[in-house]
Amino acid sequence: MSVEITNEPAPAPRATGRTSGRLHLKFVKEATGEVINEVISDPMHENERRTRDDAKILDVGHGSE
Amino acid sequence: MSAGSGLTAAADLSITNTLVALASGTYGTTGGNWWACYTTQFTAATKAGATEWLAASDTAPYARQAMGAAGVGWTIAAYASSTGVVWKNTNTLTQPAVAGTGQTLFACGWCDALTSGNINYFIDLAASQAVNIGTAVILTASTGAVFTTY
């Protein structure tokens, strides 16, 4: 007997199996060379951290009842 | 909309098509890649649709900056367990100082042509940054843009 698999949902994106990036930019005043702003962006890890923080908040809610 | 990074949605598809040797819709290299600035995010959800700065209107003399032909602008480490493949810009790159009208920066992307072409990978900023007249955006060597494929 054969089993046909149809409409199998695709796996959800995970931390692995993808490309992610971190950006570190400096904003410099051309006339003086002064660094007036510096920005670091690490979207994937920031999103993961936010998810973990949300989970902690939920945990606190369970424990406080 | 949350910030995203990595391959654009179009690159995800074309690279997959290439890996499975599909007859059409595969990724075609152009021999180089260029760093571009955007006023909007690509976002984690759509990974597409960001609005690039325009030299013709408000950010003269904006132009995409060449990373170098044949991938030489990137330092690529061999795959390592629990790390993956890490690739980062080799040299410092500087966008021309904004000279037209003040601009905002919300994402950086890398394209396969000096003008037009395809946007292959990107990194969003968490918040839009003002770039005033006389200010140049700099991608510092080795730390400016660091990607991990894992």
General description of the model:
The complex is a heterodimer of chains A (65) and B (150). With 65 residues, chain A is α+β, with helices and mostly antiparallel strands. Chain A has one helix at 43-64; strands at 19-29, 35-41. The longest helix of chain A has 22 residues, at 43-64. Chain A is elongated. The model of chain A is unreliable at 61-65 (pLDDT under 50). In chain B, 7% of the residues lie in helices and 38% in strands. Chain B contains 1 helix and 10 strands; from the N terminus they run E-H-E-E-E-E-E-E-E-E-E. The longest helix of chain B has 11 residues, at 9-19. The model of chain B has no long low-confidence stretch (mean pLDDT 92). The A-B interface holds A 15-31, 36-37, 39, 41-44, 46-47, 50 and B 2-7, 44, 84, 94, 97, 105, 108, 121-126, 129, 131, 134-140, 143-150. Strand 1 (19-29) of chain A pairs antiparallel with strand 10 (145-149) of chain B.
